[in-house]
Amino acid sequence: MEGNSLKKTSLLTIIVFLTVISFNKSILAQSGGLYFSLAFPMSEFKDNLKQTGIGLSGEFFFLTPKRNMPVGMGLSLGYYIYGMERRSEPWSTTIPDVRVDIERTNNLANFHLVFLIAPEYGCFRPYAEGLFGGSYFYTKSSVESRYDDETIAEDVNFDDWAWSYGVGGGLIYLVSGDPNFNDDVFFIDLKVRYLFGSEAEYLKPGSIEIVDNNLFYDVSKSKTDLLSAHLGVRFYFNWNPQQ
């Protein structure tokens, strides 16, 4: 796991460095977005994992397209659940009359630096993206109260990291604001992305078996290509730290 930690630390360092460089300049326009997202395993990843990931994603562009320079750069974060199991168990062998819920989720979180090519104005704005980053796969189990769903204890059973890069494209449609200025404007955004993921180990729903109070993992391993679809909103705003 030491190698995975080094990879994640290196990626975080790159992201922070680029962010600091961008904010040291006078930034006249920025944009952000929030999305409902679906993630579909592709290629050999699909051979191992049939479940579709359901989740949320968000992005922030600290550099947005301008006239005569239709390019942008930002960060994208996504979180998906691609499997969930739930069962009821006694609190302990000595307290069988108190029961708790055991919930296990298979999760995927990804982090990407995004490069954007898009027009700077207009009601309809098609765009293209290039992405580089990584995905964190982890399976987590938690003990929850049956009375109020409060989490009593939780632990990560298994995790791994994969690098990824890819391309995407989409269309934003203006619903509020002036199409000629990126100042307090609001868009509906629809996009798709294809990510080529490096090899990783991960668990699927049903991959953990409990025998005589011992855990046995059926670990899957493959490349981790993903096709994702996103529907949400994007908003532009102006912020200049020197004002």
Topology (elements, then pairings):
Blueprint: H1 2-23, E1 30-41, H2 43-48, E2 53-63, E3 71-90, E4 99-117, E5 124-145, E6 151-176, E7 185-197, E8 199-202, E9 208-211, E10 214-217, E11 220-223, E12 226-237
Antiparallel strand pairs: 1-2, 1-12, 2-3, 3-4, 4-5, 5-6, 6-7, 7-12, 8-11, 9-10
What does this structure look like?
Helix content is 12%, strand content 62%. The longest helix has 22 residues, at 2-23. Strand 6 (151-176) and strand 7 (185-197) form a beta hairpin. The strands form three sheets. The chain has an eight-stranded antiparallel β-barrel with strand order 1-2-3-4-5-6-7-12. Strands 8-11 form a two-stranded antiparallel ribbon. The chain has a two-stranded antiparallel ribbon with strand order 9-10. The protein is built from two helices and twelve strands; from the N terminus they run H-E-H-E-E-E-E-E-E-E-E-E-E-E. It has a single domain (2-29, 37-237), classed as Porin. It has helices spanning 2-23, 43-48, and strands at residues 30-41, 53-63, 71-90, 99-117, 124-145, 151-176, 185-197, 199-202, 208-211, 214-217, 220-223, 226-237. Residues 19-27 have low confidence and may be disordered. It is mainly beta and 243 residues long.
